[in-house]
Amino acid sequence: MDVPDVSYARSGDVAIAYQVVGEGPTDIVFIRGTLADLLAGWDMPLFVDHIDGLSTSARVLLFDKRGSGLSDPVRQVPTLETRMDDIRAVMDAADSERAVLWAAQEGTPIALLFAATYPERTTALVLYDPTARGLWAPDYPWALTEDAWRKELREIHDRWGDRAYLVERAHRLSPFGAQNEDWLDWFVWYMRRSASPAEAVAFQRMSMEGDVRDVLGAVRAPTLVLHRPEARDEATYVAERVHGALRIEVEGLHDWFSWADPEHNAILLRETHEFLEGLSTPREPDRVLATVLFTDIVGSTARAAELGDSAWRELLARHHTLVRGELARFRGEELDTAGDGFFAAFDGPGRAIECACAIRESLRSLDLEIRAGVHTGECERVDGKLGGIAVPTGARIASLAEPGEVLVSSTVKDLVAGSEIEFEDRGTQELKGVPGEWRLFAVR
Questions:
Q1: Which of 254, 277, 300 is the last residue of a domain?
Q2: 294: domain range?
């Protein structure tokens, strides 16, 4: 197979390198589970065989994640939200309206978040050795502990690029593949091409801080989970929480890279094709993962009485203009306006937080103070309106915010891990009319 040309998609101010392989009726976005370099991958025959197999009946989109390979370097650890945006940017640049996401290992959280947020653009998910959280937790014991991660990050920082270290890493990730000297030489070269030491640390920090456990129940796309026997428990955790997911354990897979050996690659390709061939025509989604934002003016009744009806109406109109300007800037969708409050939805929690903070600052020019609440959850979309328990949850969180405060749920905090947004713990709260207890955090 000839090496396909490299193109670039713009995702915000970052250029994402991508390639297109094949011309089939279905689009497949291939999301690697490791650092990668678009050009270096084509020097590994096993990788070429896998992409060739996928492209026999589909058009395959490959891309380098931001901060790796041929894509732009980044100055800070990318969040799941920004990396999800990169998938959308590549699909847009390649004129792909809807695609299957074929993702492995570390790439699976991005695929899950994308499928929950953009169900109308997700045909199906194929997940190999999926993971939902990077850091150990009592209810997620398969991830590395914080101490193990700190050791890993120190080693990458100090030794990345050294052949001896990358050979050690190859033996750890793929004892089976590392028995082949040609494969070992390729792995060392591939890792060096994929990232600088700083970029490798940023990539691993994103892996450590990612957490999409609260997203799994909102994924409605047909999902196939393929996994090694050693990854059974973690794969089962994901499959049981994704609606209708099919889980298949593939015997004989040895390690992270053994999926690409000819025998097992043939099995994975066969299972993928049979799964995709059995899909029915997708219906328009009526449920979507969304981030809701509620704002209201602090002390509005007293301020209205102080100003009088005419002056208050004028001030309120200026308030509405400023809020709508910020909503447009951060891709928010205005859903309702009741008096001095706004209800809006976003396709990412980071944008919702940034918008809430921008609204707060801009309204101070009018001598107005607001409180705001942000929550991410599965919503029902009916006649252009959002419903479901996530909506009253966001409203209740806003009602508990102090003047000038942007208050968020723990789900929001987890999804923006790796960003520069800092939080203060506001403890566990009961939300009126919403089941359970909720851990809340204030944006600093």
A1: 277
A2: 287-443
Q: From CA 408, how far away is CA 402, in angstroms rounded?
A: 12
Alpha-helical regions (H) of 118-246: 146-159, 163-173, 181-194, 197-209, 232-241
Rounded to the nearest 10 degrees, what angle do helices 262-277 and 45-54 cross at?
20
Which residues neighbour 443 within 8 Å (Cβ) at sequence distance 6 or greater?
A: 353, 356, 357, 405, 406, 407, 408, 421, 422, 423
Indicate whether 233 belongs to any domain. Answer: yes
Tell which residue, 206, 209, 257, has the closest CA to residue 66.
206
φ/ψ of 171, rounded to 5, equals -65, -35
Could you tell me the CA-to-CA distances from 276 to 73, 104, 123, 250, 263 in Å, in that order? 35, 17, 9, 18, 20
Q: Write the single-letter amino acid at 104.
A: A
d(CA 54, CA 231): 23
* Measured distance CA(154)–CA(148) in Å, rounded: 10
Same domain, 301 and 420: yes
Q: 191-216, pLDDT tens digit by residue?
A: 999 999 999 998 898 899 889 999 99
Residue 244 falls in which region: left (phi positive, over 0), alpha (psi -120 to 50) or beta: left
DSSP 12: T
Q: Which residue has the higher pLDDT, 253 or 238?
A: 238
What's phi and psi for 166, nearest 5 deg? Answer: -70, -30
Residue type for position 394: G
**For the chain, how many structural domains are there in total?**
2
- What CATH number corresponds to the domain at position 90? 3.40.50.1820
Residue where a domain terminates, one of 244, 277, 310: 277
Which residues on neighbouring strands pair with residue 370, listed in sequence order? 297
Q: Which of 92-96, 233-237, 274-278, 382-386 has the lowest mean pLDDT?
A: 382-386
Classify 142 as helix, strand or coil.
coil
